[in-house]
Specification:
The complex is a heterodimer of chains A (366) and B (336). Chain A is of the alpha/beta class and 366 residues long. Chain A is built from 13 helices and 14 strands. Chain A is globular and about 70 Å long. Chain B contains 14 helices and 12 strands. In chain B, a hairpin with a 2-residue loop joins β9 and β10. In chain B, α6 packs across α7 and α7 runs parallel beside α8. Chain B starts with a strand and ends in a 6-residue tail after the last strand. The chains are: A alpha/beta (366), B alpha/beta (336).
Chain lengths: 366, 336
């Protein structure tokens, strides 16, 4: 029996309007992703590739302003099934020319009210997010335990403070914060970075969400703490079977934790498939960008030989002036004479080339 | 045989913690030993990597060597000259030879100056030369760090992370420094850009004969770029030696834990094994009151497994760096 995936993003576009440059910043430009129930999807890519914006779009946290969000975000859990971007189009009027969006006029108030109406029932309860910087996403004026208790009272059927507190304590214990009763009354500044991150994980999971979005949850932590947090997540994953979208630019974390991987670049998905195929070194057909990313990590061999690292030359794509043709064309080192013309002129689509393995590159298409 | 460019002997830097205006009358001031007796040397054209968790004193070492902080005690010898207490006017001359690449370049580059002005200021502070000569040097520098000339009239916020690093490097090179303290030069960069910066650093070392003190908590990068590695824990060096020995034949339990926490090295079984070794209480370590004897005791798996031997907690026998052969030093009573 096949069930519908927990999250199904179809052709998501999130554009921001830059007033000074008089142009759209196409942060997310046609992303399609799927996360089946109980699965972990890793999203990798350089900064500016649109990973976080995709996550924020799912949660409806992109502020209205003059910008565009279009596409479909299908969300399904035991309780709810709906398109998160439903009805949003009613509030937006687009002027298009040759398939490109030229201008947007928007009923901001109605748009925001609609987002709030849809998302309020979901945020925290159905979809929880762990943000990049734990220290700044916790309220500095409230003890951590109180913050978790609050979230539980707000999002679950537990309404009495005593019960919610008990639940918060069990979760603090579950994420391995030692002496949870003592830590319960600590303010965030009294906790180390790793502890804060654990508290955030506890807060996100205490409401038993159907989908967890973790955005760069280990960046800025020491290597030793990092591996502890990853171990914790592996353990929680096997115990609870949470559906997770894991965003990181650290490939080693993604390869440890996720079942499938989406490699993003310049606002689109470049490669998509099972982790063991995509991120293992022996696998043959890979997008030049993915193999470039893998090669730029110091490997056993390069350390032994004290050799140079294989870098991807050039800088991350400027998402205002997206060139025609492949987005990676300027930095790609595998362009052959045969396909050069195509690479420079036509943008490849995301095509399936193996079981569940999709690539956006002319190299693999005939 | 290469010349020793920098030698540090028993360097200490204690920060005092003042509690209010009249605290000095009331009680003895509490001091925090950020760097507590560190000795090492760096030869010409050599890189010493310093690793350790945040808060272990890596950055303080770098800053103290450059005399951005006044050392509490100890000796710093740069190029055969004792610079521990040179006067400020001599320092300026000295800083033409030793420089630092700061961790946070958003803070280190003046947001209101164009790249050209940032570079030319650095050059003219140390050398009195004509404008034409300055321009010629700047274009040389840009070539060395692979930066496009069109970026010269940009402001720092218009550059990407990798480009900012390059500007930081160009500024350091502009004064003709031969010893560079690189403080987390690759943190906050994407892997692809990190690789570019690492390659550039090594390239410059080869061409210009630079020496680096490379501070980072990214173990892989340190292993790759350094000749020697020093591992720090709470203000002390606990192990020092050639980089591949530190990475593969670690003697101190802390070094071992650090390197085994690398995710890339963990396959499924070794992860299980590492977990059993690492099943330590990550007790809160208190910088202000280090434990008596060895500082690593509260987190040490060997201490646990050996049945809590007394030398480890005896304040009289705090382990010192001992040579164990092959230019490898370790400060532990029971090296692995």
């Amino acid at each position: 029996m096949t069930t519908a995936p927990t999250l199904k993003i179809e052709n998501l576009r999130t554009y921001f309007y830059s007033r000074s440059k008089q142009a759209f910043i196409r942060s997310v430009d046609g992303v399609s992703l799927e996360i089946a129930q109980g699965e972990t999807l890793g999203v990798v890519g350089e900064s500016g590739s649109g990973k976080s914006i995709t996550a924020l779009s799912v949660l409806g946290l992109i502020s209205a302003g003059p910008g565009v969000i279009s596409g479909k975000i299908g969300f399904k859990s035991d309780r709810i099934q709906k398109n998160l971007l439903q009805d949003l189009d009613d509030f937006v009027k687009l002027t298009t020319k040759d398939g490109k969006i030229m201008a947007v006029s928007k009923d901001v108030v109605g748009w925001e009210r609609n987002t709030e109406r849809v998302m309020n029932k979901l945020r925290g309860k159905e979809i929880a997010m762990i943000f990049q910087n734990p220290k700044s996403s916790l309220n500095p004026f409230t003890p951590v335990g109180k913050q978790i208790t609050e979230a539980i009272q707000l999002h679950t059927s537990i309404k009495t403070e005593q019960q919610a507190k008990e639940r918060a304590l069990t979760w603090l214990d579950r994420v391995k914060i030692d002496s949870p009763r003592l830590r319960f009354d600590n303010y965030p500044y009294g906790l180390s970075g790793g502890m804060c991150q654990r508290a955030m994980i506890a807060m996100a999971l205490a409401c038993e969400p159907s989908l967890l979005i973790a955005d760069e949850l280990t960046t800025g932590l020491d290597a030793t703490i990092q591996s502890k947090i990853v171990d914790l997540l592996v353990e929680l994953k096997s115990q609870l079977g949470i559906t997770t979208m894991l965003i990181s630019h650290d490939i080693s974390i993604i390869s440890r934790l996720s079942d499938s991987v989406a490699v993003m670049y310049g606002g689109t998905v470049f490669e998509y498939g099972p982790t063991r195929d995509l991120l293992s070194t022996g696998f043959a057909s890979k997008h030049p960008y993915t193999s470039g990313l893998l090669a730029s990590i110091p490997s056993e061999q390069s350390i032994r030989e004290k050799g140079y690292l294989q870098a991807i030359e050039g800088d991350v794509l400027d998402t205002i002036n997206i060139p025609e043709g492949c987005r990676f064309y300027g930095r790609c080192n595998q362009v052959t004479e045969k396909i050069r013309e195509k690479c420079a002129r036509h943008e490849p689509d995301l095509r399936e080339i193996g079981s569940g393995h999709k690539v956006r590159c002319w190299l693999y298409f005939d | 045989m290469a010349k020793t460019i920098l030698e540090v002997m028993d360097l200490k830097k204690h920060f005092t913690h003042r509690k209010g205006l009249f605290s000095s009358f009331k009680e003895a001031q509490q001091s925090i030993p950020a760097v507590d007796g560190v000795s090492f040397y760096i030869k010409e054209n050599e890189t010493l990597g310093v690793v350790g968790e945040s808060g272990c004193g890596k950055t303080t070492i770098g800053r103290t060597i450059l005399r951005l902080e006044k050392p509490t005690s100890g000796k710093i010898i740069f190029d055969g000259k004792d610079i521990t207490s040179v006067r400020t006017d001599e320092l300026r001359q000295l800083r033409g030879q030793m420089q630092m690449i700061f961790q946070d370049l958003d803070a280190a580059l003046n947001p209101k100056m164009r790249i050209h002005d940032i570079l030319s200021e650095a050059i003219t502070v140390h050398h009195r030369i004509s404008d034409a000569e300055v321009d010629r040097r700047i274009s040389d520098l840009l070539e060395q760090v692979n930066l496009k000339k069109s970026k010269l009239c940009n402001f720092p916020n218009e550059l990407s992370g990798g480009e900012k690093r390059r500007v930081g490097l160009a500024r350091v090179l502009s004064v003709g420094a031969k010893f560079i303290v690189a403080d987390e030069p690759t943190s906050a960069l994407d892997v692809s850009i990190q690789a570019q910066v690492v390659n550039l650093l090594r390239d410059l070392q080869k061409r210009l004969g630079l020496s680096y003190l490379f501070i980072s908590h990214d173990l892989r990068v340190v292993e790759l770029i350094s000749h020697k590695v020093a591992v720090m824990y709470l203000g002390k060096i606990v192990e020092m030696g050639l980089s591949d020995r530190i990475a593969n034949k670690a003697s101190h339990p802390y070094t071992h834990i650090l390197w085994s926490s690398l995710l890339e090295k963990q396959s499924k079984e070794t992860a299980q094994k590492a977990k059993s070794v690492q099943a330590v209480r990550w007790g809160v370590f208190d910088f202000e009151r280090p434990t008596a004897g060895c500082r690593f005791v509260p987190r040490c798996p060997v201490y646990e497994s050996k049945g809590k031997p007394t030398p480890c907690t005896d304040p009289a026998t705090e382990p010192q760096l001992k040579d164990i052969g092959g230019a490898h030093q370790v400060a532990c009573h029971f090296p692995l």
